[in-house]
């Protein structure tokens, strides 16, 4: 399957999305100030979504997205009948760390994607030669979850699981050790990519199709095609990230 290049219309669309993410970063900063100014700690209750939107003077959708990410990072939780509750007494410090993550320099993100392209292309090639039926089942399950996921966290987890299962299917201890060393970088890189591309129409379906194409090559035991499809998938992601951040095409 050939992956189409990002056209001018898509660049305009993702530019608009990029502006939304800048607002998202502002909302996180405002959350930090709100929590600090009120000396909130673990067990304290936040305002309602509507009250928070009015207090921060932003849209409810921006508040909702910020709350979802905070919950993803285990900073807050929802308690039926009581609302949204803080889970940690060190919110300002945690938010500062998180904001650094959300604003990872684009050059760094793209360099890591390029590194993954080289590394995971080889992983896919080995996996196609050595995979077992149990590996295929795990990979297929990850793709199915990617297709059916209704929220960002589930999409990211399914995506991450696919890449981890593929590495396992390569059955190379040295390569596995290398992947363990870079896993702390690969995971946030997946989060960063998904956070920045999530609002592009059809992007999750595109990613799911690309992963299915990689999987089919692995099922067919075609190592060359598996590596090629993995490289195309990551190159497509690089194109999206460059478009989002107005990087010039090479």
């Amino acid at each position: 399957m050939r992956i189409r290049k990002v056209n001018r219309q898509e660049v305009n669309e993702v530019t608009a999305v990029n502006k939304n993410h800048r607002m998202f970063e502002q909302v996180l900063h405002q959350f930090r100030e709100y929590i600090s100014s009120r000396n909130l700690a673990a067990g304290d209750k936040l305002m309602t979504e509507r009250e928070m939107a009015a207090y921060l003077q932003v849209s409810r959708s921006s508040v909702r997205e910020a709350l979802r990410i905070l919950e993803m990072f285990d900073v807050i939780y929802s308690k039926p009948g009581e609302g949204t509750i803080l889970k940690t007494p060190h919110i300002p410090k945690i938010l500062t760390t998180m904001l650094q993550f959300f604003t990872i320099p684009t050059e760094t993100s793209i360099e890591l994607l390029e590194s993954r392209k080289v590394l995971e292309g080889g992983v896919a090639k080995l996996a196609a030669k050595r995979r077992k039926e149990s590996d295929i089942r795990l990979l297929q399950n990850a793709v199915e979850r990617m297709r059916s996921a209704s929220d960002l966290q589930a999409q990211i987890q399914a995506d991450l699981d696919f890449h981890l299962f593929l590495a396992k299917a390569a059955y190379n201890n040295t390569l596995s050790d290398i992947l363990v060393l870079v896993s702390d970088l690969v995971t946030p890189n997946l989060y960063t990519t998904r956070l920045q591309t999530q609002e592009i129409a059809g992007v999750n379906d595109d990613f799911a199709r690309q992963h299915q194409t990689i999987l089919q090559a692995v099922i067919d035991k075609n190592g060359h095609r598996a590596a090629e499809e993995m490289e195309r998938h990551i190159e497509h992601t690089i194109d999206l990230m460059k478009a989002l951040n107005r990087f010039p095409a090479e």
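The chain has two domains: 8-100, 104-244. The domain at 104-244 is CATH 1.20.120.530 (Four Helix Bundle (Hemerythrin (Met), subunit A)).
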